[in-house]
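Fill-in record for Tetratricopeptide TPR_1 repeat-containing protein.
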Amino acid sequence: MALDAEEKPSQPITKFESMLKTDDVYFFDSEDFEDIIHHYLNNGKIALAKKAIKIGLQQHPAAAELKLLQIEVFVFENKLEEAEKMLDDLQQLDQHNEEIYIQRANIFSKKDDHLGAINLLEKALDLTDDGFDIYSLLGMEYLFMDDFEMAKKSFMKCVEFDDEDYSSLYNVIYCFEFLEEYDGAILYLNKYLEDNPYSEVAWHQLGKQYFSKKMYKEALSAFDFAIISDDTFIGAYFEKGKVLEKLGLYNEAIENYETTIKIEDPTSHAYLRIGKCHEKLGNTELAKYYFYHTVHEDPLLDKGWLAITDFYYRLKNYEKAAYYINKATNIDGENPIYWKKSGKISAALHKYDEADFAFKQAIDFGNYELDTWLQWAYVVEKNKDFESAITILTQAKEFHPEDAEILFKLSGNYSLMGDLEMAKKYIAQALILNPKGLDNFQINFPNFCTTEWMQNILEQYKNASK
């Protein structure tokens, strides 16, 4: 069994390290060598582990467990051929050692043959009465294959073996969430809590599941129980604060965020949430104070710069908003939300070329929302580049084929280019989808509306609406 990486060096380890510093050679039994090697592996001291393996095999050349540890190091170092050769030799001597199958499975996994690894791990399960580690490995192999249902079942087995195996518990909930089985996760956690009523981790996870389903009162109770179980559990206070925000209880939310700061060093995320709460309460100066604290605490937190940007944008201080959105895009230049915000700010400053570039970036990085397309087309229209506006709107139509506003704007831009046939085509389609959109169309494209053809359309529209 592997030793805890946090354990203090035992007497054999101290003795072994003393031996390395001298020319003396001490004798250890094979189990001592196993403990020494596990200690070094768990602490990432591979070179010392290899020395211990070498000396151990010199003193105990037939020790299968030491050979298996040698194989483990070979696999870690991607020396797969050497590992397989040693496994072949070992298997001739012992056909029923589950560790041989586990190490073969690790080799298969390294070669991306996850199904092969699973088959080997299943064989290992047949050879042992203690399948805890094997089920954990099975769970990981299933995750590699994106088989979240089987991964979930494997990690559940680990939790059955050890109800304090929180790593496996987290993995179970991760699988539930990926499968969007939130009710299943809630049922599982409630059942787990029947046997482990003081598990702060389970209460915390249960609260998060309720939060995802917008069951805020239930989430609040769960986080309260997590805090009762461990009154220093920062995650529970933080998540409770988020629930209180959703319930509009901003002062209470602030108290919980401040508690996280008292328990440990301040975090940028806590400052950010406190700032947003003060903003909701109308405490403008306090909001600004905490937003600046956010970026001071973590200058690379792009959400902090975005919060300051939004703060100034709402105050219509677009110059300062532009300065801070640039900070955010410099940190995360592939975030479409930041580029869209940059486009809106540049448009508000009448810097249409910059807005054009920003909206293009937003689209290129995956923001296909309707208003992103429409705002991009708007700034291009402002530059009198009607041909580009048509190209943008035609692309937008592919993503939003049933939106009348795109069709109205296509009609208007074709009319500005003098292509009345195309203008007629698109306005006819737009009117079928949304006749009421004609009012805005008249405001945005008044020249087209003075044509005889459009006058007839307007007359028909008036008569229909009487």
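KEY FINDING: Residues 1-9 have pLDDT under 50 and may be disordered.
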